[in-house]
Specification:
By secondary structure, the chain is an alpha+beta fold. The chain has a domain of 51 residues. 23% of the residues lie in helices and 18% in strands. Strand 3 and strand 4 form a beta hairpin. 12% of the residues are buried. Bound molecules: zinc ion (2 copies).
């Protein structure tokens, strides 16, 4: 797999892609503002290419009781909770 190169700096490796103009951006082509990465060309968000993202589902599965991302199992079956109190 060839490494993506910056649209402006052909010798620089692209680490981001602009969400506005869609160009590949290197470190010199982005601007950090309020913890956001912005494209210097158009000012839109620069999204990290992140070719090797760690699988989030794996790390979440290793810690099941920490913070469930969505759909808590308790509210998924409310009747079973009510049935104990109301006897439905
Ligand atoms: Zn842009
Ligand atoms: Zn660049």
């Amino acid at each position: 797999m060839a490494q993506p190169t910056c649209a402006t700096h052909a010798q620089s490796r692209a680490l981001y892609q602009c969400d506005g103009c869609g160009k590949l951006l290197c470190d010199a082509c982005i601007e950090e503002s309020h913890r956001l990465l912005l494209c210097r060309l158009c000012g839109e968000r620069a999204l990290p290419l992140a070719p090797r993202l760690p699988p989030p589902s794996r790390s979440a599965a290793s810690r099941p009781g920490r913070s469930p991302p969505r759909g808590p199992t308790d509210s998924a079956r409310p009747c079973s909770i009510r049935s104990a109190a109301r006897g439905c």
